[in-house]
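User: Can you help me understand a structure? I only have the sequence.
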Amino acid sequence: MSDDQRFGLARVATLPGPLRLDGGVLLSPVDIAYETYGTLAPDAGNAILVTHALTGDHHLASNHPVTGKPGWWARMVGPGKPIDTNRYFVICANVLGSCMGSSGPASINPATGKPWAMAFPVITIRDMVRAQAMLLDHLGIERLFAIVGGSMGGMQALSWTATFPDRVASAVIIASAARHSAQNIAFHEVGRQAIMADPRWRGGDYYADNDPPTSGLAVARMAAHITYLSEAGLTAKFGRKLQARDAKTFGFDADFQVESYLRHQGLSFVDRFDANSYLYITRALDYFDLAEEHGGMLATAFRGSPTRFCLVSFDTDWLYPTSESRSIVHALNAAGAPASFVELRSPFGHDAFLLESPELDRVMGGFLRAGETR
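Assistant: Let's start by predicting it. Here is the structure, written out as tokens:
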């Protein structure tokens, strides 16, 4: 296998299913888009599943086909990097409900021959995990050397360890939580309402006209993006700086640099994401409550778990603050599960795990290497 084939091999697996969703619906068939990096060991013992966040995708470390930009975690995954593809076989799967090749509202409903739109069944984080397990079965991977996820990816990693404990040797959960707070849900609802208030949403039935609700989706992205940053980071980068102009007149153009930045984030987002998928995935995030799934006690989700855990938080992350990670660590300790935890310093808020962080690199590399000796 050539180096080009070994790194960033993109595929779509059509799995016959059926996949039983938490809502009781049987989904069949199930398409899962994924990329792989590195070479799978003969015993399949070196597989790492990396799970992505809300607006991420399976283009983990290869150039994105729409934007042309490097993969969302190219700095972390690759030869000689903390998740070293010379040592590990890395899989990243586009989540169920997304719009980058996996089954979701934008994909075709086999019963009608048209896009599912809002007829697509409601999904949960655990449904995403079950779909990923089906993909691993398809790839012949019985047990993961590790699962690694940040933000919503961390929720998937937690759900993996609770749903399929015997299939995960190690788990790295970064900047995440075991459930959403009321504030998290509130921000998501603002975004959903922005989409549904756009006249072009039309109850989700906009695919035939190729006229999606881009205005509403852009506003949803702008609102969410604020939560990914920190006040210190925004102040350092933008402060109250005005755009360069020949003359300053009062108006509603993007006068402040931070306004222009947010508008750019919104406009670039609509080129690669589907509004209905945003509705479905944010709802899945809001429904996630690992304790509720296990009788109201978070520790019960990890009772008897054979998995090693590593949790990482960032001191300026106000979307999933350090207190959320500590709650998970306390539950792991109560369950007797081996767990390590570190809070890292960064001015960049929730997005810190996606940006350059030598400390995170050291934590990641050290934790994974330690797992090789077990």
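Now, to help you interpret it: The mean pLDDT is 93. The longest helix spans residues 182-197. Let me know which part you'd like to focus on.
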